[in-house]
Amino acid sequence: MKKYVMLALFVLSLTACPKKQITKQTDQTQEDQDSVESQELDIHGKDFIANKTLETIHFEYDSSELKDADRDTLASNAAYLKNNPDLQVLCEGHTDERGTVEYNIALGQNRAQSVRRYYISLGLDAKRLGSLSYGKEKPSCAESSEDCWTQNRRVESKVRNLKVANGHDKAEPSGEETR
To answer: Residue 134 maps to which CATH number?
Structure first.
């Protein structure tokens, strides 16, 4: 009889505590971000050019966080871009000379993506926007000083005309351009 009780307790212990089912919760924000990045503009082909109407924004050291003043600047840029739907935009991320090449490429890309995502949040079509990091390869100032480093930590919004990108006529984007 004792054997049967022990056997019953053993069987009961195996069935009494079923395994927990682990359900994988998805992070909606990450999925949204992945979706936005998968819709990114193909940046190959004709060159993107600077446009005097679109202002450059600058970043703090080792940061890709947008400041309030940057958001205002980008909102002004976005208003111009909404009025010029034939323009595609490349957000070029740059860093100062400090740090490794690999680190600066990643930081420049994070900066460019921050700007791109903010443009999208302002209503610009993700398919019109691309991002690219030059890291420390294209400085706007060549001195090794804090003032110069501050100038180099930036994202520039450059444009190309959709018609030119598709191989049609060579119409220039609205506004004045510089190289």
So the answer is: 3.30.1330.60
Range of the domain at 107: 33-178
What are the pLDDT digits (tens) for 129-156? 999 999 999 999 999 999 999 999 999 9
pLDDT band at 47 (very low <50, low <70, confident <90, very high): confident
Per-residue burial over 113-139, b = 16 or more CB atoms within 10 Å of its CB, e = otherwise: bbbbbbbbeeebebebbbbebbbbeeb
The helix/strand count (H/E) of the chain reads as 6, 6
Residue 5 lies in a domain: no
Q: How far apart are CA 74 and CA 116, in angstroms?
A: 10
pLDDT score of 86 more than 80: yes
Q: What share of the chain is helix, strand, coil (3-state, %, to 5)?
A: 40, 15, 40
Q: How far apart (Å, rounded) are the C-alpha atoms in residues 1 and 137? A: 83
